Amino acid sequence: MLSRLRTIVHRLTRHRSTRFTSEGVQFLLFTLAVGVAAINTGNNLFYLLLSMMLSLILLSGIVAEHCLRRLEFHRHLPDVLFVEEPATVSLVIKNGNGRLPSFSLQLFDVIDGQDIDRGLAIRQLLPGGSGLLSYPLTARKRGFLQLDGIRVVTSFPFGLFVKKAFYPIQGATVACPKITPLDESLVQGLVSAGREQHAYRRGHGSDLYNLRLYHSGDDSRNIHWVTTAKTSKLIVRETEAEDQRRATIHLPTTAPATHEAQFEAAVAFTASLMVHLAERGYHLRLVAGDAASSFGQGEPHMIQLLRTVALCERRPPGSAAPSAEASFDTGQAGEAMTIFVRSWDGADPPAGQGVTVLDAAHVVGVSHVV
Length: 370
Fold this sequence. Notes:
CATH architecture of the largest domain: Sandwich
Number of helices: 9
Largest sheet: 5 strands, antiparallel
Radius of gyration: 32 Å
Structural class: alpha+beta
Shape: elongated
Strand content: 25-35%
CATH class of the largest domain: Mainly Beta
Distance between the termini: 69 Å
Number of domains: 3
């Protein structure tokens, strides 16, 4: 019976809680004092004062409950966050009560059962009205960020109680590693190494592939006027196909617990490297743990790669190798540049030629290619 009673009380109070403020405690003690005086003296004036004070306590609870009832929330989270970089979150609150307004509302994010103060407050929400609030959300570590709901708090109307209501409005997003600037010489070295591995061919792009004489039917917009002026012959500029700029990034996810910091540095470096190569027009492919993507380019593909890096988990050495890493072959990349990011000292690069090995422990702030 006792356990059942506790279960019933927990269900009733799971989304509601009430506590006295310091002023409310003082008011309650004064009410008790007036009640004792009324009983001892039998004075009708004390009874009148006692009934008024009890009415205020009852009215305070009823009004506060009406302020917290029938609220509706809609929250919009960005697709991805970056560690230590604030992102804007929008929250829409609507008063579903068509007769009574709500006053003095404070809103808190609930994460892992903890109330997080975002500084959100609404003085008045008219019946049937709605309001739009926005606030910065900053992730402290990479991974899956789960928001459990919204906690609404009010002490209206007399400040005797602090009444709370929980609305389970769940939201989830992914916190990606912080993107940091890389040494320009490191990036240029990787680009140069990649060009040596690629087989150049003409196609649509922006980089120069070849200069040749003009032929009938060539687009006049491709005429290289500087060379034409020097040679007194029509010279056409051919471009290199951009799809030759391809890179496969391999991030092993096996590392001992003693190298947790080194593994996290490798994950953050991989995210920064992908962003820098994407800005240079590379088609990227990622192999991390049991996840392996295809070659792609553009914002949706980059978001997918960043989410994969953000959610990858460290695995102890000696455990069964993830399928993607076990089947990784440098030959699958074709003419793409292959970059192996060493997650710890014992991580061995895959067998094959043309593999560039980067040690994240050394390249943070200093360019170093093994």
